[in-house]
Design goal:
Helix content: 40-55%
Distance between the termini: 20 Å
Strand content: 5-15%
Largest sheet: 6 strands, mixed
Oligomer: single chain
Structural class: alpha/beta
Order of helices and strands: EEHEHHHHHEHEHHEH
Number of helices: 10
Radius of gyration: 17 Å
């Protein structure tokens, strides 16, 4: 429980692998409970976008930290965060311990800054229940069959009018899973006291109802 002045805010953590539907479900939970939401993946993507714009090298620790400390809400809302180039950079820098430590501060301050007067703050990512808010009362770890995740991602891209190859998306998800599960720093894994939610055969409404229950 995070104390905001005299108000108590309970944290809902939502973790899981790529393309499992974390962001969509987190938005629905946020809307249902009228509570603020932080998508931690946007932090790394926003930094990656700044790096690309400023042509900062992937190993330039000083400049990357400087970007992290100057992140704004507008940076987090950019429409340019979601493309394969930005995702690749974000995936690389998210494995850097110094950056993860820097962004812990931002994530842990989020409820105090945005959730005053609210019952919940929803934080979504890959290590929220294990590393960022290990004492959170409500922890959800989402999972789904990799073939189903690839198909969902493929359909999303096609719906936007863009081209995509299902096999390539499948291979990319497999590679990302292996990287996230086996990295030395904050590996992807469910917290011991988390609720496991397999969404392989659940739509968003069914998933939301299970979480509400």
């Amino acid at each position: 429980i995070i104390y905001c002045n005299t108000l108590m805010v309970e944290i809902i953590t939502i973790d899981g692998p790529a393309s499992v539907g974390k962001s969509t479900l987190a938005k629905r939970i946020s809307s249902h409970y009228k509570s603020p939401l932080l998508n931690s993946g946007r932090l790394y993507r926003a930094i990656a976008l700044k790096m690309k714009i400023k042509k900062i090298r992937i190993n330039d620790r000083t400049e990357i930290i400087k970007i992290a400390r100057l992140l704004s809400d507008n940076d987090m809302r950019s429409n340019n965060l979601f493309n394969s180039g930005i995702e690749k950079i974000a995936s690389q820098i998210s494995a850097r311990e110094y950056l993860r430590d820097e962004l812990k501060v931002y994530q842990r301050e989020f409820p105090k800054k945005y959730a005053k007067g609210k019952r919940f703050a929803i934080i979504e990512g890959r290590d929220i229940g294990t590393e960022i808010f290990p004492e959170a009362k409500y922890k959800i770890f989402m999972w789904a069959d990799v073939k189903i995740r690839a198909k969902r991602r493929h359909d999303q891209i096609i719906k936007k009018g863009e081209k995509a190859r299902l096999k390539q998306i499948y291979n990319e998800i497999i590679a990302r899973d292996n990287k996230d599960l086996n990295r030395k720093i904050a590996p992807l894994k469910p917290a011991a006291n988390s609720v496991l939610l397999d969404t392989s055969y659940l739509d968003i409404e069914q998933s939301l109802n299970k979480i509400k229950n």
